[in-house]
Amino acid sequence: MSSTPFALTGATVVTGDAAGTVLTDHTVLVDATGTIAEVGPAASVAVPPGYRRLRGTGRFVLPGLINAHAHLFADGKPLPPILTSESAEQLVSTFFHSRVGRRMVTGRARRNVDTQLRSGVTTIRSLGDVAYEVVQVREEIDAGEHVGPRLLPSGPLLAGTGGHGTPTIALVGDNPWDARRNVRTNLRKGVGAIKIAATGGVTDARAIGEAGRPQLTEAEMTAICEEAHTAGVLVAAHAQSKEGIARALRAGVDTIEHGAGMNAEIIDLFRDNPRSLRGWSALVPTLQACLPLVRLPRSDTGVGDIVHANAEMILEEMLQGIQDAQANGIAIGMGTDSALTYVTHYNTWREIDFLVRHGRLTPAAALHAATGGNARMLGLEAVTGAVEAGRAADLLVVDADPLTDLRALASPAYVVARGTVLDHPAVERFTEIDDQLDTL
Asked: What DSSP assignment string belongs to 25-60?
């Protein structure tokens, strides 16, 4: 797809590297292929004739954000308790998989992808879809039907009978060969990621302590990883306990979603994982999905005793996992778990902010996790994640320094997706949710 070539002149480049490097008074040239052609001091970069000029003076340009853990089937508003009850889950699943339900889910995915783009997210990995609706949206974007971010859809996640995500967003397999079949089914449908439920989760737990309890065997997860890696596809594991994480890493999982405190075996496997696709694994915390359920008043969240108790346990473990990762040089990515309660599609900046406020990362480290770190983690470091010549022009331009105030990311002046410029993009916001989250 061709785009109008442009020059962003006189901007401050926030490189997104782990050191927090900043380059003042720079010009970024983007050619008609949507590729960054040149980045350099404004005085030394000549803007070719016919290039559109975008004012960068007083503004800050950084790599487009990468959301490595998204769902796209809901908008993040709290759901009525009836829709999350065990008695209703089969009815909800049946509707979502009906013809009408799939049309609705695909429409939601389209809108939510657009909202993330307009808020500065230029790459999304979805990790748990109703069916293959995000694959369809990716194909529409790649065909030029509408502007959108780069998408790595997982399709339905893979779980055991009664496991996390069942029955609505999961394929079920209870032995290694069924697990392989489910991977092959997803790959055949065109997915760009595989997601497994190694342990139970918070939102659909039916008993205190279910979140984090192992749900897949190591043999089942090994079969999944072998099958996915043969196709060059990374495997992400929902895992919220030491035992669940250790099993998943031994099986060869590439990214651990959510996480928990680490022991010596887990630390060693993160840093040197011979069964993973690239020989190492990474941690993707998702603080937005858990922290509001614990720290906001239950009169506001409406969560029941079981969910609240599980959320408290998992949040403590998740925070410990972040500290252990930082102390041991383990790669940390950024994902929001969007679509879950209180996790809207325009609030990616909050996850970065929470990593600083509650995870104790520096602003530079948190921004790196959301840009260059995620690009490397997802195998996209040659494509996106940096403001450098030869990378795709996936850019976020804001009016204040995000290293000083991460809220600057909330209202972009420009979002650029593979060279296409969105000028002062607007999103629908949920004031009540934002006001509550601001207290955190």
From this structure: EEEEEE-TTSBEEEEEEGGG-PPPTTPEEEE-TT-E
Listed in sequence order, the residues at least 6 apart from 60 whose beta carbon sits closer than 8 Å to its beta carbon are 11, 12, 13, 14, 397, 398, 399, 400, 401, 402, 408
Tally of residues, the chain: 440
Burial (CB < 10 A; 0-12, 13-18, 19+), residue 371, is: buried
How far apart are the C-alpha atoms of 352 and 432, rounded to whole Å?
21
Spatial contact of 67 and 125, defined as CB atoms under 8 Å apart: yes
C-alpha count within 13 angstroms, C-beta hemisphere, residue 358:
23
Residue type for 319, please? L
Determine the Cα–Cα distance for residues 102 and 153; give it in Å rounded to an integer. Answer: 16
The CA-atom distances, in angstroms, between 96 and each of 3, 85, 101 are 37, 16, 4
What gap in Å lies between CA 93 and CA 135, rounded to an integer? 19
Q: Which long-range contacts (CB under 8 A, 24 or more apart) does 187-191 make?
A: 187/227, 187/228, 187/231, 187/233, 189/132, 189/135, 189/155, 190/132, 190/135, 190/138, 190/139, 190/153, 191/132, 191/135, 191/153, 191/154, 191/155, 191/233
**Residue that has been written with the tokens 């029941």 in this structure:** 304
Tens-level pLDDT at each residue, the chain (440 residues): 457 899 999 999 999 999 999 999 999 999 999 999 999 999 999 999 999 999 999 999 999 999 999 999 999 998 766 556 677 778 888 888 899 999 999 999 999 999 999 999 999 999 999 999 999 999 999 999 999 999 999 999 999 999 999 999 999 999 999 999 999 999 999 999 999 999 999 989 989 999 999 999 999 999 999 999 999 999 999 999 999 999 999 999 999 999 999 999 999 999 999 999 999 999 999 999 999 999 999 999 988 999 999 999 999 999 999 999 999 999 999 999 999 999 999 999 999 999 999 999 999 999 999 999 999 999 999 999 999 999 999 999 999 999 999 999 999 999 999 999 999 999 999 999 999 999 99
